[in-house]
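Fold it.
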Amino acid sequence: MNHKCMVFLMAAVLLAGVACGTYIAVKPLTQLRFPPTASCEIFTTKAPDRPYTEIAILEVSEGGNTILAAQKKAMALGANAIVMKGQAVEGSIALGNGLIGTANKTIFVAVRWKEGGAA
């Protein structure tokens, strides 16, 4: 197999992996563990007004509904809400002179309400 075919096949495999689903990297911010929650609020423009503790950073690689994926993961971690912090370009795959695609990610912080905090 020649070099161009091998490079093309590797790029196709990488793109298929990016396009096939959503990947979530979890970076815990506390040693504490919490039971899963049944609901999780979403804050995309500002942080919650009530007192909270940040429990994890969620880096969601695009490949579907990033907000829904982050919300489900946050609920499994015991979060009461997620706060969207921003988006970033994770990387790109190039073949020859043409750009084939980019991998974007959205950053969220999973938070848990502090006990006794006002609603």
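The two ends are 64 Å apart (CA to CA).
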